[in-house]
Amino acid sequence: TGNVHHVRGEVHGTLTFPPRGDRGFGYDPIFVPEGMRETFGEMAPDAKHEISHRARAFEALKTFLSQAK
Known about the structure:
The structure is a single chain. By secondary structure, the chain is of the alpha+beta class. It has helices at residues 45-51, 53-67; strands at residues 13-15, 31-33. Strands 1-2 form a two-stranded antiparallel ribbon. It is elongated.
């Protein structure tokens, strides 16, 4: 078997009520990322994807893979 490496991406922020925005799913309409005024549900998809936990995890994976060469 091969090696296993875990990466993690996090976005810190606050929850807001009532929900705002109709983009995204799950917590998107109530989650305001730190330093932002809009919820993920209000953001344009490209802006959200630039700072999402998935984008941050993928960047960590790319860094790991580039150093593993």
